[in-house]
Amino acid sequence: MGRLEGKIAVVTGGNSGIGLATAKRFIAEGAEVFITGRRQEELDNAVEAIGPGVIAVQGDVSHLDDLDRLFATVRAERGRIDILFANAGLGALAPIGAITEESFDLVFDVNVKGTLFTVQKALPLMQAGGSIILTGSTTGSMGTPAFSVYSATKAAIRNFARSWALDLRTTGIRVNVLSPGPTATPGLLNGLARSGQQDAMTAGLIAQIPIGRMGLPEETAAVALFLASDDSSFMTGSEVFVDGGMAQV
Ligand code: NAP
User: Fold this and answer.
1) Strand order in the sheet with 83-86
2) Residue 1 pLDDT
3) Deepest of 3, 4, 16, 216, by most Cβ within 10 A of its Cβ?
4) Ligand 1 centre and the CA of 183: distance in Å?
5) Whose CA is nearest to atom 19 of ligand 1?
6) How far is the centre of ligand 1, averaged over its atoms, from the C-alpha of 163 (Å)?
7) What is the mean pLDDT of residues 85-99?
8) What average pLDDT score do residues 21-49 get?
């Protein structure tokens, strides 16, 4: 029997990287999973790769109408949510002095506003025993050159979990942050390629990781499973790092 047998999960940003690996793992453990993302083609590919047990709903987490449509679909199809993985996120490299208003608005809209309203709009479908997992990052508690806006959004995520654990104290719903370090996903690898300094930046990241390599999305998914399951029943407001030691030393 799987560790999530009979559970209903929603994974935002479930068509790629950490979200895709987590959707696969949740389904392997017996859950049914709704995934969302903006790109329909990537959603179709994910549905094909995952197989039975997944339902894709296209949408942008920073558009409240899209979130309403997502959760209306979940309500109509399954009536409840046991596990919410608010994972959709993105970032752009720019040092202070070169940050544009457009880029600031995009990254805060998706990572902060998107996460907040994903959780707020999911809550009416959740009940005692529910688990909310927010995707943070090592960058939320470290300085990272040319990545201050993204890092600030992840610091905001960290506080959301602390504060929401208090807001939700009488509900039996837990909320925790899962913070990966550099993880080999399309999001990170494409970002490094776009920088034009892929080899140097990759070597620079690995040099900061005691385990000596980047993480795999499946390694983050394994910890998402722990936070989703009753194995973490006495945890709320926490941050769990899956970072090869990067932000721990
Ligand atoms: P990824 O492969 O690019 O996946 C990002 C996912 O988020 C995609 O499914 C993307 O789908 C979705 N997404 C982005 N903007 C969205 C929006 N506005 N609405 C709905 N979905 C949206 O990158 P990843 O590395 O797996 O990232 C997943 C999470 O981990 C992010 O929150 C990221 O900040 C965090 N993280 C990653 C690393 C790392 O090294 N990889 C480290 C720390 C934290 P669409 O493009 O189709 O919308």
Assistant:
1) 54-58, 32-37, 8-12, 83-86, 131-135, 174-180, 239-242
2) 84
3) 4
4) 11
5) 60
6) 23
7) 97
8) 98
Helix (H, G, I), strand (E, B) or coil at 215: strand
pTM for the model: 0.99
Q: Which atom of ligand 1 is nearest to the CA of 150?
A: 34
Q: Which 3-state string (H, E, C) describes 105-125?
A: HHHHHHHHHHHHHHHHHHHHH
Neighbour-count burial of 76, counting CB atoms closer than 10 A to its CB (0-12 exposed, 13-18 middle, 19+ buried) = exposed
Q: Which of 150, 160, 164, 241 is catalytic?
A: 150
Domain extents in the chain: 8-242
pLDDT tier, 195 (very low <50, low <70, confident <90, very high otherwise): confident
For ligand 1, atom 6: residue with the closest CA: 13
How much distance in Å is there from the Cα of 1 to the middle of ligand 1?
A: 30
Q: 220 with 180: CB under 8 angstroms? A: yes
Q: Are 131 and 228 in contact (CB under 8 A)?
A: yes
Question: What residue spans of 51-100 are helical by DSSP H?
Answer: 64-77
CATH number, span 8-242:
3.40.50.720
**Is 150 a catalytic site residue?**
yes
Task: Provide φ and ψ at 70, rounded to 5°.
Answer: -60, -50
**Residue 113: pLDDT above 90?**
yes
C-alpha 170 – ligand 1 centre gap (Å): 31
In short, whether 13's Cβ falls inside 6 Å of ligand 1 is: yes
pLDDT over 90 at 72, yes or no: yes
Give yes or no for residue 87 having a pLDDT over 90: yes
| CB 110 less than 6 A from any atom of ligand 1 | yes
Mean of pLDDT over the chain? 98
